Amino acid sequence: MFSKKYNSFLKDSEMTAVIRAADWSNTSVGEIDKWSMALRSALGIMLNSRFPMFLFWGKDMTCFYNDACLDAMGIRGKHSSILGKSRAGSLSEMWHIISPIIKNVLKSGEASWHEDQRVPIFRSGKMVYSYWTSSYSAVCDDFEKIEGILVAMNDVTEKVEARKKKEEAEERTRLAAEIAQIATWDLDLQTHKMIHSESLATIFGHEKNVQLTYADIISQFQPDDIADVVEKAFELSMQSGTYKYEARVIKNNGELGWIRSHGKIFFDSTHEPLKIIGTLIDITEEKNHSEILMESELKFRLLADALPQLIWTADANGALNYFNLSVLIYAGINYRDLNAGGFQKLIHPDELEQFDSKWTSALITGDDFLLEHRLLRQDGVYRWFYSRAIAQKDAAGKIQKWVCTSTDIQQQKNFTEELEKKVSERTAELENTNVNLVNMNIELQSFAYISSHDLQEPLRKIQTFISRLNDTEEMKFSAAAKEYFEKINAAADRMQLLIQDLLAYVRTSVTDKVFMIKNLQELAEEIKEDYRERIQETNAVVEIRNLCEAKVIPFQFRQLFNNLIGNALKYSKPGIPPHILINGSLINGFEIKNLGANVDSTYCHISIADNGIGFDMEYKDKIFQIFQRLHSKTEYSGTGIGLAIVKKIVENHNGIITASGAENQGATFDIYIPEL
């Protein structure tokens, strides 16, 4: 590209030399000699332009720029961090402005024109704001494919600021005329005859239709201000032609006020003053407000100096202009050095870039500035601070100043680090505990295997041999021997039942919990069918109503219904047919929050009530404990594990179970299963 062959496209310039000397082999655009004609042409246009221009090329938006950018855009000396880099990394202060425009041109292919954009530029070691008019044009290859974006910029800061000043002046004039608080006057310096607007009389405390003379007005000035202010201003106006002053007046009602007068003196050909035409406004409120502000500022500074926090303020553009006494003491440097960029030097290098980025963003958006960062103390130690800056805005929402605080949070940081250390240690302990639990579960599974095979095998042999003895030797046994064999057989049967119940309890704890949406009405009806013969034998009535659908572990819920219906049939009152009512409904967690329910959840409520022997409420919690029985083995068979299994199943579903009842008046079990 920059061989003799192509020199005709480019003029000699600083950036031509820099681009020639740069190593492009490791960039997405590749070596110079392989650059496309489209890229060469675009560079030729850019480098020959006197306007600041950028070229962003290729899929990575590799950055090029010309000589005009060096000083205007604050790039001089930063070639290594900008030239050839993706998306102009060191142009981060303005990238958020130009990036959306570039994306839009890439998408649409249409050129874009932007006038009077306010752009932040890091120039001469500080952030400045200027106004630019810019154009963004797509650069295409021979196949009309967009390869890059050419950006031309023109600094219009002076024009924009001049226009804004003019607009502000016109706005002030318009507002003054609108609210009719500006008085006009015309004084003949030869005759002292005065003509004035109605509002002048009201400013001096008279009715608006009162016509005041020059002598009347002079008589209402504070005597000390006549010679020191009014007459001195007149003497100066003879040289400058402009008559202006601020003075105190005594209004017609005796109140003290302030006025500001501006006028223009007209002279004849001999430089003899002829007349003054001017304006006059009441600035009493402004002066009072200024005094209040001064008092408020003094109070603010006194209060700020008394606080341990570091307090600093900045103007609307972000320039720091005040630091309280705590900042001076902490930093160990004077106010002037802090104001001259010393505060930036206190920020830890690791957080400086983030600090500048967030501060720039806050200045642009007006949002609060919030950041945790470290500040250098005078003894060379960095401490953590939480800095917050809030914009003080006027009624129109325009930022007037920034009030900022930096609070020492080193102790909180130390506490957090210590807490994290303890959490890490506790996590390690929990992981170790989990390993132990896994091992215990493995042992439980081994126990379950032994229970289901090894322990039951000897029992089966005992039961087999007892059966054979009964079949073959029964006639030889005495009555006592028969009784002993019956007891041995009953004990073996109880042992087998106990092992089976223990196995069911263990499986409830260790089996994989696979949840499915099931109709609980159907599950309960299946268990009722399993107990058909028992129900017929006892003339029992089992009613199942309104059970809902729920996400459950099906085989466990079958076990739950089996145990509860079986218990209700078993613990019936002699001579009275059992009556079992199973009812369902949906209930809000707030209604059972006293049971520990989640108030934001909905629960499936299952109530199982019977008319059996019941129990004393003293044992309402004990009945759910493993091996707990309220009746002797001779009265009612069982191992005391059934309700423990029921409770374990409810817990596996993150549910709640309660029991209520009274002796000889039946029992009720209420189960609450949350919707999953």
Automatic annotation (TrEMBL):
Record Pfam families:
HATPase_c, HisKA, PAS_3
Enzyme class label: transferase
Query: What superkingdom heads the lineage?
Result: Bacteria
Q: Which UniProt keywords apply?
A: Kinase, Phosphoprotein, Transferase
Give me the reactions it catalyses: ATP + protein L-histidine = ADP + protein N-phospho-L-histidine
Every PAC domain range: 243-295, 369-421
Keyword Nucleus in record: no
This entry's Enzyme Commission designation comes to 2.7.13.3
Annotated PAS domain ranges read 296-367
- Boundaries of each Histidine kinase domain copy? 450-676
- Name under which the protein is recorded: histidine kinase
Source organism of this protein record = Flavobacterium endoglycinae
Taxonomy-wise, where does this protein's organism fall, top ranks first? Bacteria, Pseudomonadati, Bacteroidota, Flavobacteriia, Flavobacteriales
